[in-house]
Amino acid sequence: MDNIYHNNKKKKTFFINFGPQHPAAHGVLRLNMEMQGESVVTIDPHIGFLHRGTEKLLENKTYLQCIPYFDRLDYVSTLPQEHGFILALENLLNISVSEYVKYSRVILDEISRILNHIMCITTHALDIGAVTPFLLGFEERENLLYIYELISGARMHTAYYRVGGLAFNLPNNILEHIYQFSESFGKYLDFLDSVLSENLIWVSRLQDVGLISKKDAISYGFTGPVLRSVGVPWDIRKLNPYENYGKIMFNIVSGKFGDAYSRYYIRMFEMRESLKIIQQCICKLGELDSSEHSKKHMGLYNKNDIINFKTTQGMEELIHNFYFYSKGYKVPSGSIYSVIEAPKGETGVYLVSYNSNKPWRCKIKSPGYMHLQGLNSISKNCLLADVVTNIGTLDIVFGEIDR
């Protein structure tokens, strides 16, 4: 605690450091807080403890080498981060993907949404004293990470999306495995509802805490569940559908009060909707003819509009593969902004290319950065303990903020 006091006739305030290590955020954050007793007067967030210079690193990597860097942004939900970058590249290259790839990507994005919301809700519950949801929630999360591993070979940093396709076709019987999970996970959500949603302690800790007005939410640039909690039904999947979201039936829920409880319950609702989306996509994939399933959907780097080569056998083919992975493919000159509805909100990628195999500029818009800048406004007059709740329901991960 800093021995700094501010005196005037009406109040006596003091400053404390909250962090830079604390349990409420996935990453390293320091809050310089001015307090009056137990009440928050102002909060000044300090970031920079995790800085890796991701955007600058991307300027020195080939487009293929860039993909794993996006996994490390929001490392709680990796595939949607890759998705925004891949969509930007596909638009610049004027590439369309198969129905198989579109539905597969939607399934994987929604799995990531569930992974994210389990982490958000259960670790937030743990932060304020509820242990059981965390223990059982991570059992469910383990089942989803196992699906990640079956698909890509990695549990977290999958690097699975490719320009024009996927790194590998989905394994045999994986859709049946995912469908079984979607059937059983609803029971866990019912349990979580019964443990938290009407629990008097949980409700009293969240209701009317961290209030956000609709005007402030829009002016700060909030997106995702945080924006929807104030009554703005803004969701890119509905308003500007990408992949095959426009062909799928699902609901968007918006809250009314803009408090921590609204932000919690919207995420609960979204997980149920993600299950519906996953099941519909599995049915759609089942309707595709067998020839579509048997095709290779591992990207289009062997097309003439990306890299011009003639397939040969033996050593020549090996040399080509080595050349491709070391030099990459060229993207024509142009700029584009691609945005998706990631679990935390809108994740955008502004990509500039000058007919090169590396980005000239790759600017990333992360929802957490916008949410963090509103923490001072949200936490005014809250108690010190409520700051943990506010950070938890804003769902802040510092990989995407301090980039």
Brief digest:
With 403 residues, this protein is of the alpha+beta class.
Write up what this structure looks like.
The chain has 403 residues and is an alpha+beta fold. It has one domain: Orthogonal Bundle (Cytochrome-c3 Hydrogenase, chain B). A 4-stranded antiparallel β-sheet has the order 1-2-3-4. It has a 3-stranded antiparallel β-sheet with strand order 7-8-9. The protein is globular and about 80 Å long. The chain starts with a strand and ends with a helix.
Tell me the number of helical segments per DSSP (H or I, 4 or more residues long): 17
Give the C-alpha Rg: 23 Å
Order of helices and strands: EEEEHHHHHEEHHHHHHHHEEEHHHH
Lateral arrangement of strands in the main beta sheet: 1-2-3-4
CATH architecture group name: Orthogonal Bundle
Shape: globular
Taking the sheet with the most strands, its summary is: 4 strands, antiparallel
Portion in beta strands: 5-15%
Q: What is the name of the CATH superfamily?
A: Cytochrome-c3 Hydrogenase, chain B
Helix fraction bin? 40-55%
Number of domains: 1
The average pLDDT score comes to 86
Distance between the termini: 29 Å
CATH class: Mainly Alpha
Number of strands: 9
Structural class: alpha+beta
**Unreliable runs, pLDDT <50, ≥5 residues?**
302-312
Query: What name does the CATH topology carry?
Result: Cytochrome-c3 Hydrogenase, chain B
